[in-house]
């Protein structure tokens, strides 16, 4: 009995971890590097873990070279986002008015990429904002995308 519970717990945790991870969709090289990977722009897909049927596509720069290949380079702060309804929208739980949905490390220390979901209840729309921050100084560069929800399906807010 306890083996079944442990196995079920591991499966649930694995499913939760994969929901919040980015899926690499594609990439293009932007600068040649003699050693390590080239500098590039990557396109990643993030499925909203609390809203089935919504996927956000984020494009951002990834630094190559030796430092970039081993994960020590600091990526640039610029990112672009486009979120779309890709299936019927279903809410898995009530949503807070604003929530950090995804974060991903952009440097070995202190710099992170964020995707924040903001609920516009008046217009029944989900707004997604991407930006980066740093422990001391973040970047004002940002990008937003909005996903309108069918009027017969109001967004459940906490």
Sequence-ordered SSE layout with sheet pairings:
Blueprint: H1 2-20, E1 23-31, E2 39-47, E3 51-62, H2 65-70, E4 79-91, E5 98-105, E6 112-120, E7 125-133, E8 142-148
Antiparallel strand pairs: 1-2, 2-3, 3-4, 5-6, 6-7, 7-8
Task: Describe this protein's structure.
The protein is of the alpha+beta class. The chain has one domain (22-148). The protein is built from two helices and eight strands; from the N terminus they run αβββαβββββ. It has helices at 2-20, 65-70, and strands at 23-31, 39-47, 51-62, 79-91, 98-105, 112-120, 125-133, 142-148. The strands form two sheets. Strands 1-2-3-4 form a four-stranded antiparallel β-sheet, with no helix packed on it. A four-stranded antiparallel β-sheet has the order 5-6-7-8, with no helix packed on it. It is elongated, with a radius of gyration of 18 Å. The chain starts with a helix and ends in a 10-residue tail after the last strand. 18% of the residues are buried. Residues 1-19 have low confidence and may be disordered.
């Amino acid at each position: 009995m306890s083996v079944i519970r442990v196995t079920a717990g591991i499966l649930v945790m694995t499913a939760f971890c994969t929901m919040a991870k980015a899926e690499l969709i594609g990439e293009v090289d932007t600068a040649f590097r003699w050693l390590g990977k080239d500098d590039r722009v990557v396109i990643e897909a993030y499925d909203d873990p609390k809203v089935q049927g919504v996927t956000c596509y984020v494009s951002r720069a990834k630094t190559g070279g030796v430092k970039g290949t081993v994960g020590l380079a600091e990526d640039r702060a610029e990112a672009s986002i486009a979120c779309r309804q890709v299936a019927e929208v279903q809410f898995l739980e009530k949503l807070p008015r604003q929530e950090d949905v995804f974060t991903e490390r952009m440097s070995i220390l202190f710099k992170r990429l964020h995707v924040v979901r903001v609920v516009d209840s008046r217009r029944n729309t989900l707004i997604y904002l991407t930006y980066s921050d740093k422990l001391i100084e973040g970047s004002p560069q940002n990008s937003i995308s909005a996903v309108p929800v069918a009027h017969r399906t109001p967004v459940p807010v906490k």
